[in-house]
Structure prediction request, 343 residues.
Amino acid sequence: MTASASAAEPFKVMALYKFADLPDAAAIRPVLAAFCCARRIRGTLILAPEGINGTVAGTPDAIADLHRYLLAEGPFDTRLAGAEIKFSHAREMPFLRMKVRLKPEIVTLRAPEANPARIVGTYVAPDQWNALIARNDVVVVDTRNDYEVGLGTFRRALDPGTRTFTEFKDFVARELDPARDRKVAMFCTGGIRCEKASAYLLAQGFEEVFHLKGGILAYLEQVPAERSRFDGECFVFDERVSVGHGLVEGEASLCRACRHPLTAMECADPAFVEGVSCPHCAGDAARERTLKPARVAERQRQVELARARGLAHLGDDATRTAQEQKCRKQARKEASRQRQSGQ
Prediction:
Protein backbone atom coordinates (compact mmCIF):
# COMPACT_ATOMS: atom_id res chain seq x y z
CA MET A 1 0.00 0.00 0.00
CA THR A 2 1.33 3.42 -0.96
CA ALA A 3 1.76 6.27 1.53
CA SER A 4 -1.17 8.16 0.02
CA ALA A 5 -3.40 5.08 0.18
CA SER A 6 -2.35 4.48 3.78
CA ALA A 7 -3.26 8.07 4.67
CA ALA A 8 -6.68 7.61 3.07
CA GLU A 9 -7.27 4.39 5.03
CA PRO A 10 -5.55 5.00 8.39
CA PHE A 11 -7.06 2.04 10.26
CA LYS A 12 -5.64 -1.46 9.99
CA VAL A 13 -8.07 -4.37 10.36
CA MET A 14 -6.95 -7.81 11.54
CA ALA A 15 -9.20 -10.87 11.21
CA LEU A 16 -7.87 -14.05 12.83
CA TYR A 17 -8.75 -17.46 14.12
CA LYS A 18 -6.96 -20.51 15.42
CA PHE A 19 -8.22 -23.82 16.77
CA ALA A 20 -5.95 -24.42 19.76
CA ASP A 21 -6.07 -25.89 23.26
CA LEU A 22 -6.94 -22.96 25.55
CA PRO A 23 -8.15 -24.36 28.89
CA ASP A 24 -7.08 -21.05 30.49
CA ALA A 25 -9.29 -18.92 28.23
CA ALA A 26 -11.23 -17.45 31.17
CA ALA A 27 -8.03 -16.23 32.86
CA ILE A 28 -6.70 -14.74 29.62
CA ARG A 29 -9.86 -12.81 28.81
CA PRO A 30 -9.41 -9.72 31.08
CA VAL A 31 -5.70 -9.45 30.33
CA LEU A 32 -6.30 -9.49 26.58
CA ALA A 33 -9.13 -6.94 26.88
CA ALA A 34 -6.93 -4.55 28.85
CA PHE A 35 -4.07 -4.91 26.35
CA CYS A 36 -6.36 -3.99 23.44
CA CYS A 37 -8.13 -1.11 25.18
CA ALA A 38 -4.82 0.41 26.31
CA ARG A 39 -3.95 0.74 22.62
CA ARG A 40 -7.43 1.95 21.53
CA ILE A 41 -8.02 -1.20 19.53
CA ARG A 42 -11.69 -1.97 18.88
CA GLY A 43 -13.57 -5.00 17.67
CA THR A 44 -14.51 -8.41 19.02
CA LEU A 45 -12.37 -11.38 20.01
CA ILE A 46 -13.93 -14.66 21.08
CA LEU A 47 -12.05 -17.00 23.38
CA ALA A 48 -13.05 -20.61 24.03
CA PRO A 49 -11.35 -23.80 25.18
CA GLU A 50 -11.08 -24.70 21.47
CA GLY A 51 -9.30 -21.49 20.37
CA ILE A 52 -9.66 -17.84 19.35
CA ASN A 53 -11.65 -16.02 16.69
CA GLY A 54 -12.41 -12.40 15.87
CA THR A 55 -11.79 -9.16 14.02
CA VAL A 56 -10.27 -5.99 15.44
CA ALA A 57 -9.05 -2.65 14.13
CA GLY A 58 -6.69 0.10 15.24
CA THR A 59 -3.69 2.09 14.13
CA PRO A 60 -1.03 0.08 12.26
CA ASP A 61 1.29 0.31 15.29
CA ALA A 62 -1.41 -0.90 17.68
CA ILE A 63 -2.30 -3.86 15.48
CA ALA A 64 1.41 -4.74 15.13
CA ASP A 65 1.65 -4.77 18.93
CA LEU A 66 -1.36 -7.07 19.20
CA HIS A 67 0.00 -9.36 16.50
CA ARG A 68 3.22 -9.89 18.48
CA TYR A 69 1.29 -10.24 21.74
CA LEU A 70 -0.91 -13.01 20.36
CA LEU A 71 1.79 -15.03 18.62
CA ALA A 72 4.80 -14.74 20.91
CA GLU A 73 4.88 -12.25 23.76
CA GLY A 74 1.56 -12.67 25.58
CA PRO A 75 -0.16 -15.33 27.70
CA PHE A 76 -0.77 -17.63 24.73
CA ASP A 77 2.96 -18.48 24.43
CA THR A 78 3.25 -20.22 21.05
CA ARG A 79 -0.19 -21.85 21.06
CA LEU A 80 -1.49 -19.48 18.38
CA ALA A 81 1.44 -20.08 16.04
CA GLY A 82 0.14 -20.66 12.52
CA ALA A 83 -3.09 -18.75 13.19
CA GLU A 84 -5.05 -17.76 10.10
CA ILE A 85 -4.64 -13.97 9.97
CA LYS A 86 -5.84 -11.50 7.36
CA PHE A 87 -5.01 -7.80 7.27
CA SER A 88 -6.94 -5.07 5.48
CA HIS A 89 -7.52 -1.32 5.86
CA ALA A 90 -10.49 0.96 6.49
CA ARG A 91 -11.15 4.67 5.97
CA GLU A 92 -12.91 4.95 9.33
CA MET A 93 -12.81 2.93 12.55
CA PRO A 94 -15.18 0.04 11.74
CA PHE A 95 -16.05 -0.86 15.35
CA LEU A 96 -17.64 1.04 18.22
CA ARG A 97 -16.00 -0.72 21.16
CA MET A 98 -13.65 -3.49 22.25
CA LYS A 99 -15.14 -6.78 23.42
CA VAL A 100 -13.41 -9.99 24.47
CA ARG A 101 -16.02 -12.68 24.95
CA LEU A 102 -15.74 -16.10 26.57
CA LYS A 103 -17.82 -18.78 24.83
CA PRO A 104 -18.03 -22.60 24.73
CA GLU A 105 -17.01 -22.56 21.02
CA ILE A 106 -15.30 -19.99 18.82
CA VAL A 107 -17.78 -20.87 16.10
CA THR A 108 -20.99 -22.47 17.33
CA LEU A 109 -21.96 -25.77 15.73
CA ARG A 110 -22.91 -27.82 18.83
CA ALA A 111 -21.33 -30.96 17.42
CA PRO A 112 -18.61 -32.31 19.75
CA GLU A 113 -17.45 -34.74 17.09
CA ALA A 114 -16.34 -31.77 14.93
CA ASN A 115 -12.88 -31.17 16.36
CA PRO A 116 -10.49 -29.53 13.86
CA ALA A 117 -7.61 -30.00 16.30
CA ARG A 118 -8.06 -33.76 15.87
CA ILE A 119 -9.19 -34.21 12.27
CA VAL A 120 -9.75 -31.69 9.49
CA GLY A 121 -10.25 -31.61 5.74
CA THR A 122 -7.68 -30.81 3.08
CA TYR A 123 -6.68 -27.14 2.88
CA VAL A 124 -6.80 -25.69 -0.62
CA ALA A 125 -4.76 -22.57 -1.39
CA PRO A 126 -6.62 -19.71 -3.09
CA ASP A 127 -4.59 -20.07 -6.29
CA GLN A 128 -5.68 -23.76 -6.54
CA TRP A 129 -9.34 -23.18 -5.70
CA ASN A 130 -10.63 -22.40 -9.20
CA ALA A 131 -9.39 -25.68 -10.60
CA LEU A 132 -10.97 -27.68 -7.77
CA ILE A 133 -14.44 -26.15 -7.92
CA ALA A 134 -14.52 -26.44 -11.72
CA ARG A 135 -14.44 -30.25 -11.47
CA ASN A 136 -17.73 -32.03 -12.16
CA ASP A 137 -17.10 -34.63 -9.45
CA VAL A 138 -16.83 -32.00 -6.69
CA VAL A 139 -19.83 -30.66 -4.77
CA VAL A 140 -19.22 -27.02 -3.80
CA VAL A 141 -20.90 -25.78 -0.60
CA ASP A 142 -21.11 -22.28 0.86
CA THR A 143 -21.11 -22.75 4.66
CA ARG A 144 -22.21 -19.16 5.40
CA ASN A 145 -25.70 -17.98 6.29
CA ASP A 146 -28.34 -16.87 3.80
CA TYR A 147 -27.89 -13.11 4.25
CA GLU A 148 -24.14 -13.46 3.56
CA VAL A 149 -24.66 -15.62 0.48
CA GLY A 150 -27.09 -13.01 -0.84
CA LEU A 151 -24.27 -10.48 -1.35
CA GLY A 152 -21.97 -12.81 -3.25
CA THR A 153 -20.77 -16.39 -3.62
CA PHE A 154 -18.77 -18.74 -5.85
CA ARG A 155 -20.32 -20.02 -9.05
CA ARG A 156 -21.87 -23.49 -8.73
CA ALA A 157 -21.94 -23.28 -4.94
CA LEU A 158 -24.86 -24.74 -3.02
CA ASP A 159 -26.58 -22.34 -0.63
CA PRO A 160 -27.64 -24.22 2.54
CA GLY A 161 -30.18 -21.48 3.29
CA THR A 162 -29.17 -21.37 6.95
CA ARG A 163 -29.85 -18.57 9.41
CA THR A 164 -27.25 -19.85 11.88
CA PHE A 165 -24.27 -22.18 11.54
CA THR A 166 -25.91 -24.75 13.82
CA GLU A 167 -28.49 -25.35 11.05
CA PHE A 168 -25.68 -26.57 8.80
CA LYS A 169 -26.02 -30.04 10.35
CA ASP A 170 -29.63 -30.24 9.13
CA PHE A 171 -28.54 -29.21 5.62
CA VAL A 172 -25.93 -32.00 5.56
CA ALA A 173 -28.44 -34.60 6.72
CA ARG A 174 -31.02 -33.41 4.19
CA GLU A 175 -28.97 -32.65 1.08
CA LEU A 176 -25.62 -34.45 1.21
CA ASP A 177 -24.87 -38.17 1.12
CA PRO A 178 -21.40 -39.63 1.81
CA ALA A 179 -22.14 -42.54 -0.53
CA ARG A 180 -22.96 -40.18 -3.40
CA ASP A 181 -21.04 -36.98 -2.67
CA ARG A 182 -17.53 -38.38 -2.36
CA LYS A 183 -15.75 -35.05 -2.88
CA VAL A 184 -17.03 -31.92 -1.14
CA ALA A 185 -15.35 -28.51 -1.28
CA MET A 186 -16.46 -25.86 1.21
CA PHE A 187 -15.73 -22.21 1.86
CA CYS A 188 -16.69 -19.36 4.21
CA THR A 189 -15.62 -15.80 4.97
CA GLY A 190 -12.26 -16.31 6.67
CA GLY A 191 -11.87 -20.09 6.79
CA ILE A 192 -13.08 -20.88 10.30
CA ARG A 193 -16.59 -22.14 9.60
CA CYS A 194 -15.58 -24.29 6.65
CA GLU A 195 -12.68 -25.72 8.66
CA LYS A 196 -15.05 -26.84 11.41
CA ALA A 197 -17.58 -27.98 8.81
CA SER A 198 -14.89 -30.14 7.21
CA ALA A 199 -14.24 -31.84 10.55
CA TYR A 200 -17.97 -32.45 10.90
CA LEU A 201 -18.32 -33.99 7.42
CA LEU A 202 -15.36 -36.29 8.01
CA ALA A 203 -16.95 -37.41 11.28
CA GLN A 204 -20.13 -38.19 9.29
CA GLY A 205 -18.27 -40.53 6.93
CA PHE A 206 -17.56 -38.32 3.92
CA GLU A 207 -14.40 -39.51 2.15
CA GLU A 208 -12.74 -36.42 0.66
CA VAL A 209 -13.44 -32.99 2.11
CA PHE A 210 -11.70 -29.81 1.00
CA HIS A 211 -11.90 -26.25 2.32
CA LEU A 212 -10.58 -22.91 1.10
CA LYS A 213 -7.61 -21.88 3.21
CA GLY A 214 -8.16 -18.38 4.55
CA GLY A 215 -11.67 -18.33 3.12
CA ILE A 216 -13.12 -15.82 0.68
CA LEU A 217 -11.01 -13.03 2.18
CA ALA A 218 -7.77 -14.79 1.23
CA TYR A 219 -9.17 -15.55 -2.23
CA LEU A 220 -10.18 -11.93 -2.87
CA GLU A 221 -6.80 -10.77 -1.63
CA GLN A 222 -4.70 -13.15 -3.74
CA VAL A 223 -6.64 -14.03 -6.90
CA PRO A 224 -6.80 -11.34 -9.62
CA ALA A 225 -10.28 -10.07 -10.43
CA GLU A 226 -9.97 -11.20 -14.05
CA ARG A 227 -9.52 -14.82 -12.88
CA SER A 228 -12.19 -14.69 -10.22
CA ARG A 229 -15.02 -17.18 -9.93
CA PHE A 230 -16.55 -15.23 -7.04
CA ASP A 231 -19.54 -13.11 -8.03
CA GLY A 232 -20.59 -10.14 -5.91
CA GLU A 233 -19.09 -8.93 -2.65
CA CYS A 234 -18.13 -10.64 0.59
CA PHE A 235 -20.07 -9.70 3.72
CA VAL A 236 -17.89 -8.81 6.72
CA PHE A 237 -19.00 -8.35 10.32
CA ASP A 238 -18.08 -4.72 10.80
CA GLU A 239 -19.08 -1.26 9.61
CA ARG A 240 -17.50 -1.80 6.19
CA VAL A 241 -20.36 -4.27 5.53
CA SER A 242 -18.63 -5.85 2.53
CA VAL A 243 -15.33 -6.08 0.67
CA GLY A 244 -14.39 -6.86 -2.91
CA HIS A 245 -11.22 -7.91 -4.72
CA GLY A 246 -8.09 -6.59 -3.09
CA LEU A 247 -10.17 -6.39 0.12
CA VAL A 248 -11.27 -2.88 -0.82
CA GLU A 249 -14.41 -1.67 0.91
CA GLY A 250 -17.49 -2.74 -1.01
CA GLU A 251 -20.66 -0.96 -2.09
CA ALA A 252 -23.08 -2.79 0.21
CA SER A 253 -24.73 -0.99 3.12
CA LEU A 254 -26.55 -2.15 6.24
CA CYS A 255 -30.15 -1.69 7.32
CA ARG A 256 -29.89 -0.01 10.71
CA ALA A 257 -33.28 -1.38 11.72
CA CYS A 258 -32.85 -5.14 11.08
CA ARG A 259 -29.05 -5.30 10.42
CA HIS A 260 -29.51 -7.05 7.05
CA PRO A 261 -26.87 -6.27 4.38
CA LEU A 262 -28.23 -4.43 1.36
CA THR A 263 -27.16 -4.25 -2.26
CA ALA A 264 -27.37 -1.00 -4.23
CA MET A 265 -30.56 -2.29 -5.88
CA GLU A 266 -32.15 -2.98 -2.49
CA CYS A 267 -31.26 0.52 -1.32
CA ALA A 268 -33.16 1.86 -4.34
CA ASP A 269 -36.27 -0.12 -3.34
CA PRO A 270 -39.21 2.04 -2.13
CA ALA A 271 -39.25 -0.02 1.09
CA PHE A 272 -35.80 1.29 2.02
CA VAL A 273 -35.88 4.27 4.37
CA GLU A 274 -32.50 5.02 5.89
CA GLY A 275 -32.35 4.03 9.53
CA VAL A 276 -36.00 2.89 9.48
CA SER A 277 -36.67 -0.06 7.15
CA CYS A 278 -35.53 -2.07 4.13
CA PRO A 279 -37.07 -4.65 1.77
CA HIS A 280 -36.19 -7.40 4.27
CA CYS A 281 -37.97 -5.92 7.29
CA ALA A 282 -40.60 -3.47 6.03
CA GLY A 283 -44.02 -4.67 7.08
CA ASP A 284 -42.60 -7.36 9.35
CA ALA A 285 -45.13 -7.73 12.17
CA ALA A 286 -42.55 -8.91 14.70
CA ARG A 287 -40.33 -5.95 13.85
CA GLU A 288 -43.26 -3.56 14.21
CA ARG A 289 -43.81 -4.84 17.75
CA THR A 290 -40.18 -4.83 18.91
CA LEU A 291 -38.39 -2.00 17.09
CA LYS A 292 -41.11 0.67 17.32
CA PRO A 293 -40.53 2.24 13.87
CA ALA A 294 -41.75 5.69 14.94
CA ARG A 295 -38.99 5.86 17.55
CA VAL A 296 -36.42 4.55 15.07
CA ALA A 297 -37.51 7.15 12.52
CA GLU A 298 -37.20 9.97 15.06
CA ARG A 299 -33.70 8.85 16.02
CA GLN A 300 -32.69 8.79 12.35
CA ARG A 301 -34.08 12.33 11.93
CA GLN A 302 -31.96 13.51 14.86
CA VAL A 303 -28.87 11.84 13.40
CA GLU A 304 -29.43 13.60 10.05
CA LEU A 305 -29.94 16.97 11.78
CA ALA A 306 -26.70 16.49 13.70
CA ARG A 307 -24.85 15.64 10.49
CA ALA A 308 -26.22 18.74 8.78
CA ARG A 309 -24.90 20.87 11.64
CA GLY A 310 -21.52 19.13 11.57
CA LEU A 311 -22.09 17.65 15.02
CA ALA A 312 -21.90 14.13 16.39
CA HIS A 313 -25.24 12.65 17.37
CA LEU A 314 -25.71 12.40 21.13
CA GLY A 315 -25.92 8.60 21.00
CA ASP A 316 -22.68 8.36 19.02
CA ASP A 317 -20.90 10.73 21.40
CA ALA A 318 -22.15 8.86 24.47
CA THR A 319 -20.93 5.57 23.01
CA ARG A 320 -17.50 7.06 22.33
CA THR A 321 -17.23 8.55 25.82
CA ALA A 322 -18.27 5.31 27.51
CA GLN A 323 -15.75 3.37 25.46
CA GLU A 324 -12.92 5.73 26.33
CA GLN A 325 -13.77 5.49 30.01
CA LYS A 326 -13.82 1.69 29.84
CA CYS A 327 -10.48 1.61 28.03
CA ARG A 328 -8.86 3.89 30.61
CA LYS A 329 -10.17 1.70 33.42
CA GLN A 330 -8.87 -1.50 31.83
CA ALA A 331 -5.54 0.15 31.04
CA ARG A 332 -5.14 1.09 34.72
CA LYS A 333 -5.88 -2.49 35.72
CA GLU A 334 -3.26 -3.81 33.30
CA ALA A 335 -0.67 -1.32 34.58
CA SER A 336 -1.41 -2.36 38.16
CA ARG A 337 -1.12 -6.05 37.25
CA GLN A 338 2.24 -5.47 35.54
CA ARG A 339 3.58 -3.56 38.57
CA GLN A 340 2.51 -6.37 40.89
CA SER A 341 4.00 -9.06 38.71
CA GLY A 342 7.31 -7.14 38.67
CA GLN A 343 7.51 -6.98 42.43
Remarks:
- Residues 311-322 have pLDDT under 50 and may be disordered.
- Residues 314-342 form the longest helix (29 residues).
